[in-house]
Structures are given as structure tokens and as C-alpha cells.
Amino acid sequence: MSNLTVSTFLSLHGQAKEAISFYQTHLQAQLVFCITNQEITEKLDPTYTYPASEKDWIAHSVLTIGNSELMIADELMSDAPNLVKGTNFSLCITSSQAEITTLYNLLLEHNQTRVIVPLAPNLFSKAYAIVEDPYGVVIQLVTEK
Q: What is the DSSP letter of 40?
């Protein structure tokens, strides 16, 4: 599994733009990529849906801080009822489709792993899933198109 990359992914429910600006100013983060819900609909997938009030929400962004990558979006990656502000993060593991499939299956071997989004292709990935491990950590598994 030498091709794995693990990135921190913050889910900020409406505060992603402010957080991006904060990290750029206070941690010298460089914005590598950013797309809003509306831009996804206009540029990538006209069938992509979201509440009208969330058209300017960040669907996905990537920042670099030194040699590290930080991903930020407004969407919550979990439906857990007890999320506390400041703890809405996940591990985002990026690799080949074969490695992502292997990791997904290994995670599902544990009977307390909860599937939030089953492994399947989507708009930005040939294989994408979200699971919650037995310790409450949300893990995104993704291959880049």
C-alpha cells in the first residue's frame, strides 16, 4: 500500500470559506483547489442537488500547509447526532482503486464499522466511500479520476 495518502478533511457546515481564509492568513496555507455546490452543477454535473441556501457552500477544497494537505468542505461527512463544533473532521485516504477497495473490505471486516456511503463511483472518483470506524472516526476512501 505504498501509494496511500492520508489527509485531514474538515467538515465545517457553512464555515468553510471563513476557515480557508483563516488558514491562508494564519498558517500561510496555499489554496490548491476550491469548488462550490453551484459550480459543480454549472461545470460538472447538472443533476447535482443541494438546498438553495447552500449554493455558495464549499463542496470541496484542498489547501497545502507546508508539505501537508488539508481538505475542507461545508458538508458534514457523518450523520452522527452528537457532532461537536470543532470535531467535524475525517481522514481522507486516497489511492488506487484496487487499494481503496481492499481497505474498504478490510474496514468492513470489523462488525462495528458503520457504512455511511457505500463504495461506488461518483462525480469525482471511480471508487468512493465513507465509513465510521469503531472509535467514531469518519474515514473517506477515494480514488482520483
A: I
